[in-house]
Design brief:
The protein has 199 residues and is of the alpha+beta class. It folds into two domains: 67 residues, Arc Repressor Mutant, subunit A; 121 residues, Umud Fragment, subunit A (Ribbon). The strands form two sheets. The chain has a nine-stranded mixed β-sheet with strand order 4-3-5-6-11-7-8-9-10, with no helix packed on it. Strands 1-2 form a two-stranded antiparallel sheet. Strand 8 and strand 9 form a beta hairpin. Helix 1 crosses helix 3 and helix 2 crosses helix 3. It starts with 5 loop residues before the first helix and ends with a strand.
């Protein structure tokens, strides 16, 4: 199955969100309005491309005739121990691929990360749980993120105080917040969009 472009992924996320929140998919006009297309025809062209890649099926003659092909979605790579300094999705970090229906999460995930340590237990995130991560270039105050600080990868809550100082906040009183200084090597790997508990 071919990868989606960033715009196609936006549309797919919008379809999933609409089905999850309203119980039905958006119309072409809804998609055009939400994503700033000039016409519903532009949305239709993107939908056809997404259908060609196998992620959706389009039912002819119905304004909301979009069906998710969840069975056809790709498995998510499970990242275990992350090698220091290397890309998080480097081959040596990936334990295996896991097939998970995308409707399990509010937003589509790019990979799963096995949690190490107990710094987030107050949010119900324990060692060996799997967190679903959406790759991102930016995040909001209060979001749980996966970040790389120097050569270490960590899961924390992103916080910005009144003076613009950035902190990574644990959810365990035994740990202290990590202050991110301007000269620190900080890199956002992604935002947490779901949690799979260890059984």
């Amino acid at each position: 199955m071919k990868e989606l472009t960033a715009r196609q992924q936006e549309i797919l996320d919008l379809i999933k969100e609409s089905i999850k929140n309203k119980g039905f998919p958006p119309t072409r006009a809804d998609i055009a309005k939400k994503l700033g297309f000039k016409s519903a025809n532009a949305a239709e062209q993107h939908l056809r491309a997404i259908e060609k890649k196998g992620f959706i099926s389009i039912l002819q003659g119905a304004s909301r005739g979009i069906v998710l092909n969840e069975a056809k979605t790709l498995g998510l790579p499970l990242v275990g121990l992350v090698a220091a300094g290397g890309p998080i999705l480097a081959e040596q970090n990936i334990e295996k691929n896991i097939d998970i229906p995308p409707s399990l999460f509010d937003r589509s995930a790019d990979f799963l990360l096995r949690v190490k340590g107990n710094s987030m237990v107050d949010l119900g995130i324990y060692e060996d749980d799997l967190i679903a991560v959406k790759k991102a270039n930016e995040c909001k105050d209060g979001e749980v993120i996966v970040a790389r600080i120097g050569e270490e990868v960590t899961v924390k809550t992103f916080r910005v105080d009144g003076e613009g100082e950035v902190f990574l906040e644990p959810a365990n009183s035994e740990y202290k917040p990590i202050r991110i200084s301007n000269n620190e090597e900080f890199y956002l790997e992604g935002v947490c969009v779901g949690l799979i508990k260890k059984f």
